[in-house]
# Entry
Amino acid sequence: MSKHKSSGMNRRSFVKLCMTALAASTQGAAFAAPRGTLHAYPRSLLTDQTRRPLRASDLVVGENYIFHYPFVTTPCFLVNLGAPTDSEVVLKTERGKSYAWQGGVGPDASIVAFSAICAHKMTHPAKAVSFINYRHERVRFLNNQKEGLEGSQVIYCCSEKSVYDARRGARVLGGPAKQPLAAVKLEYDDEDTLHAVGTYGGEMFKKFFSEFRERLQLEYLIQDVDRAIGAHTQVTPLDQYCKTQILC
# Structure
C-alpha cells in the first residue's frame, strides 16, 4: 500500500516539475525578441550602372537608389542614412506576426533596403513617375491620430500619405498603411560589396503581380514579370530611374 502511494506521489511530483519547466520556458520566450522568418530568395549582388559590383562606400548619404529584388519587376529602395540605425526593432505585420528588423549594414551600419511597394495600395516607383520616395530632409506629416509631426529620414508615399521610418525598419509613422514596408536583408562583406539575400516582414508580391501584371509587362517589355532577379541586380539613382518624382 505504501509502495503504491509513494509511486503516486512520484508521478505527481514529476508532472508538477514538467509544468513548472514549461511555464518558465514560455515566460522566457515571451520576453525574447522575435527573430521573424527570413523569406529566403536567391543571393543577388548589387551592381552599379556599369554592371560592376557596387561599392557601399560610393553610396551618397541621403540619396534615393532603386534596385529590383527578389523579382525582376519588384522595386526596392536602397539608402545610406549616414549614421547607424536602431537594431533589433520589433515590428508586426498586418496579420499580427511579429519579427525583428536587424538594422543597417556597412561600415557604419547605416545602409538599409526596403521594398518600394507601399503597404497600403501598392504605390511604387515606375519609370514615368514615382509617388513614393525617401526623404532625408525634415518633412511634415500627420500621424495616425491626425496630429501634425515633423521628421527626417522617412519614406513618404504621396498617394495616400503613408509615412515609414527608415531608421527603424520602415515602421509606420502615419497614414493608412497597416504594416511596415517589407525589409530586404542585405549582407555586407570585406570587399565593400552588398548582396540581397531575402526579405523580412509582410510581403505583397503576389497581390502586386495580380494587380499590375499587364502594366508591368508593358513597362518592362517581358511576359514573366514574376521571374526571379538572378545573381545580379543593378542599382540606379531614383532621379535617373523615374522621369518625375512627386513630393509632398
